[in-house]
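Example 9 (inverse folding). The structure is encoded as follows.
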C-alpha cells in the first residue's frame, strides 16, 4: 500500500489541529513546530512497513469464521471444529 504524504502528516500530527491545502502545504494551529520533509518521508516509510508487516492479520481476518459462525459453534457444542478452522488459517498466514 502506498502511504500518501497527507496520511503521514496526519499520523505525525495526531491530536493536533492543522490543515493541508490543495497544494499539500501544512497550515499549523496552536503554535506547533513545523514538520521537516525528512520527518514526513520517515513516517511514510514507517507506515508502509507497518502495513506490510500486518498483512498476515488482514489475510486471517478475511478467512476467520464470522461472529455468526462462532455463535453457532458455541450453541451447537462444536468448538473443536471452530478451533481447528482457526488453527488452519493461522498456519496458512503465520505472523512475520
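The amino acid assigned to each position is listed next.
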Amino acid at each position: 500500500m502506498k502511504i500518501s504524504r497527507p496520511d503521514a502528516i496526519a499520523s505525525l500530527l495526531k491530536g493536533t489541529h492543522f490543515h493541508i491545502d490543495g497544494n499539500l502545504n501544512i497550515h499549523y494551529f496552536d503554535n506547533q513546530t513545523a514538520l521537516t520533509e525528512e520527518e514526513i518521508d520517515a513516517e511514510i516509510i514507517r507506515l508502509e512497513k507497518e502495513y506490510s508487516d500486518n498483512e498476515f492479520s488482514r489475510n486471517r481476518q478475511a478467512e476467520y469464521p464470522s461472529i455468526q459462525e462462532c455463535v453457532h459453534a458455541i450453541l451447537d457444542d462444536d468448538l473443536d471444529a471452530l478451533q481447528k478452522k482457526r488453527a488452519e488459517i493461522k498456519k496458512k498466514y503465520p505472523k512475520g
